[in-house]
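Q: Predict the bound structure with adenosine-5'-diphosphate.
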Amino acid sequence: MPQYLLALDQGTTSSRAILFDTNGHTAGTDQQEFRQIFPSPGHVEHDPEEIWSSQLTVARNVLKNSQVHADSIAAIGITNQRETIVLWERETGKTIGNAIVWQSRISHKICDRLKEEGLEPVIREKTGLLLDPYFSGTKLTWLLENDSDLKSRAEKGDILCGTIDSFLIWKLTGGKSHLTDVSNASRTLLFDINTMQWSDELLEIFGIPRAMLPDVVDSSGVIAETSPEIFGRSIPIAGVAGDQQAATFGQICFEPGMAKNTYGTGCFMLMNIGNKPRVSENGLLTTVGWRINGETVYCLEGSIFIAGAVIQWLRDGLEIISSAEQTEALARSVDDTGGVYFVPAFVGLGAPYWDAQARGLIIGLTRGTNQAHITRAALESIAYQTYDVLDAMKRDSGIELAELRVDGGATANNFLMQFQADILQTAVHRPTIQETTALGAAYLAGLGVGVWQSEAEIAEKWILDQEFKPQLPKEQSDALLTDWHRAVKRSQGWQE
Ligand code: ADP
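A: Predicted complex:
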């Protein structure tokens, strides 16, 4: 009987289910969007029941549409939007309020307060993260501080919390298992990535009762079974990882120094740094990649807020293009940007600058500047920002990058990929499969139940679609970078 892995990819705007065969090929897929709720400026919520019902629907649909019976599913792998937090009642399973989404800035005052108390260094040392509302910890603090009844119920163990992986596992097991994997735990601000345990000191700082938290498990290996009524029979849940970590696994970045970059709305870059955590000195995060058979792999992570979004802005804001696809030919229609640099700091700058006051600029304009130059400068800005993050990773890890593995919507742009290789002076490798996030979850699950015996066996499944080798002489890419950095300086600290 053929065997399949079912990946549940619970994202920020949609729930997806993808069926993979044992060659790692896609055998079926389904997707459903759900509501984004904006209760106040800067605050974003999801209805957890919608998350669950959409995820369940697509999982069932993909089996039905592919005519694959639950008996043929060797295991389920879960990957999810990270940092988003849900509360529910232990007894009834009923969710309490909405999920607070990673994008929400609702807890920024709590972060400021803890910073004023001088707590950021200890938090950074233990978690590898920054004291920012992005992570789950202060979102939980905010929920508990806004309802005193909740806190006392949580202390008694009546209220549970979890990131989306944890919530889905709870639902899939009919309330039997309250678990999370190490990669998701490492995004909460409550988990000590050195000891690989919830930290009592951090729980104290954030005011979180230990009784609320899930048990932490490996990212691969059977951790639970789905309750039989969900798919008609029990299926092992054998792989769990946050979306970016799953994508890193799906890109087979198994060796220290291997890195992937996902080019979507923003960019998410992760580099495997091996079995020891290392706190970044260059504004990056340290995060748990995955843990398999008790062995932890750590990653450095850097995110860029505006990447593909700059192309959306050219289309919808500036209206100088009508589609993202058009940008490749337009950029190639000129030899260079004519000295134009575009720093898309629309919402400030992320790693390695962390400048919330920076704002976007287009500089070097002359009478000769036209739409093609600006479009080209916008595409190049994606590559320059990637360079800056990778450069920080190199400095932190001391590792020279051998290649950059890429995925995400904007990697369809061959001009961008070539320019990326030129600026990095490093080969850029785009695989045939772009579903790296779901694939990573499927790989973790397959490995967990022995569909695949080893990472080496999985690594063979990574197939190159196209390699982009550096063609520009290094002196020229250095000169471009010098001017890029001059432009970045001018964008910084703008908003007073
Ligand atoms: P997300 O998962 O963040 O929604 P996707 O991986 O779907 O992102 O990628 C979509 C992004 O990629 C959009 O911001 C879009 O502007 C950009 N994009 C898509 N195609 C191209 C292209 N050919 N050239 C440049 N950017 C592109």
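A: The chain has a mean pLDDT of 94.
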